Amino acid sequence: MPPRPAAPHHWLAPPADLERDQEHIYWLGDFRFPVSITGVLAAGKSAIAKERIEATRDQWEARGTQVHLALELAATSGDFHADHHPNCWPYLDWIEPLLGHAIWQQVEVIASEFPLYALDHHGGLSIAGTFDLAWQQPGTVSPLHGGPLRTLVDLKTQANPKAGAYDTTPQLGGYLTLAAHHGLVFDQAATLWCRPGKTQLTTHAIETCLDAWSLAVHHYLNSS
User: Fold this and answer.
1) For residues 173 and 207, what is the distance between their CA atoms, to the nearest angstrom?
2) Rounded CA separation 157/193 (Å)
3) Whole-Å CA distances, 136 to 73, 116, 148, 203
4) pLDDT (tens digit, 9 = 90+) per residue, 147-198?
5) C-alpha distances in angstroms, 117 versus 34, 96, 129, 209, 210?
6) String of DSSP letters for 126-157
7) pTM of the entire structure?
8) I need a labelling partner for 37 at 20 to 30 A (CA). Which of 93, 119, 153, 154 fits?
9) 3: which strand partners?
C-alpha cells in the first residue's frame, strides 16, 4: 500500500504567504530570505565535495525530483500507484520499493512538501526551507503534545543500491527548529533512504538533530 493521508483535520497547516521561486529562493511578501537550510549546510562542504555534487547534477537531480514527486502524489492523493501514470514513471526501481515500504501500513501522512521559515533565527539570520514529509502513528500518545506520535521525514535518493548512509541530522534539525518557531512539535525525525530495489528507514533523536543543526549554523555564521 502507498502512503495514506490522515483525515483532513489532522493535516498540519503551513505558514501563510511563504513562497519559493524557480531558483528555490524563498520570499515572504517582498522580503527575500538570504539563505535556505540547504544553503547553510552547503557552507560546511569542502570545495572537492561541491565540485563532485555539481559534476553529477545531471544524474541525481532528475532522479530526486521524480521520486520526490511520486511520494508527494502518493501522500496527497491516497490512492496513487506508480503504474497509474499513462506513460509509466521513470525511476520505478526507486519508486516502487519506496511506495511499497511496510512503514505506510503503520502511519498516516500529515504533511507533504511543507514550507517553513524563521526570522531573526540564530544571531539575526533569517532562514527558510521545505521538508519532505511528516507522519503520525495512530493509537499512540505523545508526551510532548498529547496527540499521536509525530515524525518529521526527509527523503534521500541514491544511485547505488549498496551506498552507505550519510549524516542527515543537521538538515533534519534545521526543519525541526523552523517548525518549533510555528508551534509544531515532533517526537522524532527520520530519513527514508531510497535506493534502486530497496528503501530503508533510519530514525533520529530530536536532540541529536538539533545539536547538529546548531553546529552547522555556527559554522555558516563564522564562514560568512
Assistant:
1) 8
2) 6
3) 18, 19, 6, 14
4) 999 999 999 999 999 999 999 999 999 999 999 999 999 999 999 999 999 9
5) 11, 32, 6, 17, 16
6) EEEEEEEEEEEETT---TTTSSSEEEEEEEEE
7) 0.92
8) 93
9) none
